[in-house]
């Protein structure tokens, strides 16, 4: 575009900038040509203010390398990273795969709200890409529809997630602080913990994916406001509404999936995108089965309620919770300019989505009790009795609001009655009280000695022995043994004691119980048989066996369809440690064989070359030719193109010119001999023999009798 100094520039003497396709808060994306490999790429150029920061540039390089390690069909590939200084300034850039098409935001504008099947089909590749990143230790931190690219149908229509690594590179050391820090990510998709302290893990990506799913289903963002601060506070203090509030036809289990992914308590969310992908597949299966409701699945997916939460004012409910969590001081300063009712700091009457869904799943057995509006207090009556009434309390409009002097409206000022006093006398019970106090202290001390020490014994050390030996030693010490959950150990064989609770040397009650943790031996997993699976399915299967996906390598295959796994490296059944890398060999389909034109060339040479490339060769016919030598190809089918192993190429081969035998001509008249030769297709010339008598008879010919010569050749007759 005109006016952009980068357009037309050659970065790193390799990437020719063509046009700008997008601009964000930290970088601009350009369509460019890789002049070295002659391909179209996308180049993301950091804004000059960021690129000049050496610390940021170093983080950007590290995270670009980390993102480049992601080899996944739904992740935009990272090709290169560089820093161009040809114009005297640092231009930090990242070279990525160019995806011609549109973004998920465009789909939302056109199709949302959309059916759950369509929404989950769009979200599944996004979650699959996030799962691959989480397995590689990367957190995206800026999941939003704008970062989901969808290729045109001409380019396969594949969904790809962009900007892996960049968000993490920015936020690695720039937490949201009170001194001018920045909060990385689009506010509409920020997890509450990112708003509160700026720190997040894979569950922040899960939250953002849940918000995207809500937007696909309803066409609306779950939290909106007049300013980013208002939206951020709503993420902290308000649950994401159930999609069925806006679209009543949405099944309960789809509601529950959104609730699980967007729980404000990150411990209630799926641990990472791999777990979320598993839940998503369960919901997709229910949709394929045509279930309009599945209470069991919905209950299983629904976030677990905190013990003691009755839905009327717990930490998970925003209706009575007006105490904000810690937040950035700068954000609070901005918030003072906002109406508190719009800030998210006060309740806005929005329902608790967990309670709402549970009411939908569990039939009500009676009317709910009326909530109390405050603590109980006793109000005196004129007759001296008291009636118990709920005391109502009111919060001031602001912390700085002046207090009104005088009694509260409607209540009389209280009076303080005088208290009569008398002179004290010395008590005779003093010594007795002292003795009792000493005895009490002694008793307490003895009790403390007994309860805190004497009734305990020391746990004997029973590590590295088998269960029977450990049990015998514990019983001889007056203790009981029980077996807890076993655990893997790289150092101890299966069946030996890894640890105890309490540990060796720790105190335990006499006759108490010591829990033994037995070894399962080294933790190992066999490489599963992934042949015939797609790359996504194979990666999910590896994750389920605690093995990591390494990389995919394409190979031609005559038997395995394109895109499916041919084999793994290491091979199936190989026993590996958890986290070991397994590479996939994927089929590229049948290997194409280019066929060239062999016309005018030796048939034997053509047959040898084609059979060597596993093609079949056949002779469709042989023909005489006055122009094509014998054994040479006259024509072939197909003449050129692409074939596959086992396909046939047919040839028409030349027999050379047609040969005719010269007949006996001696003693024949010249005219008769000429007629015979011309009938056979020969040309005729006559000459006088050495002994010419003028008789007009043929004495001999050249070529002579019995010779085979090509039709059309000239025969010379010698006449006597």
From TrEMBL:
Recorded catalytic activity of this chain's protein: L-seryl-[protein] + ATP = O-phospho-L-seryl-[protein] + ADP + H(+); L-threonyl-[protein] + ATP = O-phospho-L-threonyl-[protein] + ADP + H(+)
CDD domains with a match to the protein in the record: PASTA_pknB (cd06577), STKc_PknB_like (cd14014)
Domain PASTA: 453-520, 521-588, 589-655, 656-720
Occurrences of domain Protein kinase (ranges): 15-281
Gene3D superfamilies registered for this protein in UniProt: 3.30.10.20, Phosphorylase Kinase, domain 1 (3.30.200.20), Transferase(Phosphotransferase) domain 1 (1.10.510.10)
Pfam families, A to Z: PASTA, Pkinase
Catalytic activity, EC: 2.7.11.1
Keyword line: ATP-binding, Kinase, Membrane, Nucleotide-binding, Serine/threonine-protein kinase, Transferase, Transmembrane, Transmembrane helix
Sequence intervals crossing the membrane: 432-453
Region named Disordered: 291-327, 359-423
Domain of life per record: Bacteria
Keyword hit for Cell inner membrane: no
PANTHER family registered for this protein in UniProt: MITOGEN-ACTIVATED PROTEIN KINASE KINASE KINASE 20-RELATED (PTHR43289), SERINE_THREONINE-PROTEIN KINASE YBDM-RELATED (PTHR43289:SF34)
Name of the featured protein: non-specific serine/threonine protein kinase
Lineage: Bacteria, Bacillati, Actinomycetota, Actinomycetes, Propionibacteriales
């Amino acid at each position: 575009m005109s006016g952009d100094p980068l357009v037309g520039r050659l970065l790193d003497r390799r990437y020719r900038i063509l046009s700008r396709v997008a601009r964000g808060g930290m970088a601009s994306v350009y369509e460019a040509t890789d002049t070295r490999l002659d391909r179209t790429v996308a180049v993301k150029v950091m804004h000059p203010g960021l690129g000049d920061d050496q610390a940021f540039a170093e983080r950007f390089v590290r995270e670009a390398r980390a993102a480049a390690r992601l080899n996944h069909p739904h992740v935009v590939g990272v090709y290169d990273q560089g820093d161009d200084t040809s114009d005297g300034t640092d231009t930090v850039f990242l070279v990525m795969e160019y995806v011609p098409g549109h973004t998920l935001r465009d789909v939302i504008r056109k199709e949302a709200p959309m059916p759950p099947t369509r929404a989950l089909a769009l979200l599944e590749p996004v979650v699959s890409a996030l799962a691959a990143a989480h397995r590689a230790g990367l957190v995206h931190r800026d999941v939003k529809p704008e970062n989901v690219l969808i290729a045109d149908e001409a380019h396969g229509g594949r969904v790809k997630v962009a900007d892996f690594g960049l968000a993490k590179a920015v936020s690695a050391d720039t937490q949201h602080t009170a001194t001018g820090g920045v909060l990385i990510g689009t506010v509409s998709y920020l997890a509450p913990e990112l708003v509160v302290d700026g720190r997040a893990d894979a569950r922040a990506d899960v939250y953002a994916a849940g918000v995207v799913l809500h937007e696909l289903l309803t066409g609306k963002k779950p939290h909106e406001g007049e300013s980013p601060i208002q939206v951020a506070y709503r993420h902290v203090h308000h649950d994401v509404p159930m999609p069925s509030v806006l679209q009543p036809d949405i099944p309960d289990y789809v509601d529950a999936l959104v609730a699980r992914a967007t729980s404000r308590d990150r411990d209630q969310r799926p641990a990472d995108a791999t777990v979320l992908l598993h839940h998503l597949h369960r919901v997709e299966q229910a949709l394929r089965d045509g279930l309009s409701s599945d209470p069991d699945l919905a209950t299983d997916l629904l976030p677990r309620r905190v013990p003691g939460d009755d839905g009327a004012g717990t930490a998970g409910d925003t209706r009575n919770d007006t105490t904000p969590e810690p937040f950035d001081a700068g954000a609070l300063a901005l918030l003072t300019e906002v109406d508190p009712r719009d800030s998210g700091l006060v309740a806005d009457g929005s329902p608790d989505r967990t309670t709402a869904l549970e009411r939908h799943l569990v039939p009500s057995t009676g009317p709910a009790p009326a909530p109390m509006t405050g603590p109980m207090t006793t109000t005196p009556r004129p007759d001296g009795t008291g009636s118990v009434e709920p005391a109502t309390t009111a919060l001031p409009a602001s912390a700085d609001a002046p207090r009104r002097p005088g009694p509260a409206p409607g209540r009389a000022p209280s009076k303080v009655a005088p208290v009569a006093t008398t002179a004290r006398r010395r008590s005779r019970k003093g010594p007795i009280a002292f003795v009792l106090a000493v005895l009490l202290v002694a008793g307490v001390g003895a009790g403390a000695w007994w309860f805190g020490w004497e009734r305990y014994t020391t746990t004997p050390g029973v590590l590295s022995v088998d269960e029977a030996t450990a049990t015998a030693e514990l019983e001889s010490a007056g203790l009981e043994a029980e077996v807890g959950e076993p655990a893997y150990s790289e150092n101890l064989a299966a069946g030996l004691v890894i640890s105890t609770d309490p540990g060796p040397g720790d105190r335990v009650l006499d006759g108490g119980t010591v829990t033994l943790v037995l070894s399962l031996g080294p933790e190992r997993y066999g490489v599963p048989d992934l042949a015939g699976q797609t790359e996504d399915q194979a990666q999910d299967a590896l994750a389920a066996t605690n093995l990591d996906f390494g990389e995919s390598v394409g190979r031609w295959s005559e038997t395995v369809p394109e895109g499916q796994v041919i084999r793994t490296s290491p091979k199936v059944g190989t026993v590996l440690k958890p986290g070991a890398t397994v590479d996939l060999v994927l089929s590229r389909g049948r290997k194409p064989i280019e066929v060239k034109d062999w016309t005018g060339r030796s048939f034997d040479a053509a047959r040898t070359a084609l059979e060597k490339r596993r093609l079949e060769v056949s002779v469709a016919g042989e023909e005489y030719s006055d122009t094509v030598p014998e054994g040479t190809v006259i024509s072939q089918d197909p003449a050129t193109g692409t074939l596959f192993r086992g396909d046939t190429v047919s040839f028409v081969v030349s027999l050379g010119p047609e040969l005719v035998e010269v007949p006996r001509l001696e003693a024949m008249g010249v005219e008769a001999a000429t007629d015979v030769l011309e009938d056979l297709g020969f040309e005729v010339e006559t000459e006088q023999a050495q002994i010419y008598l003028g008789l007009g008879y043929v004495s001999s010919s050249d070529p002579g009798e019995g010779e085979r010569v090509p039709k059309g050749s000239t025969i010379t007759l010698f006449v006597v």
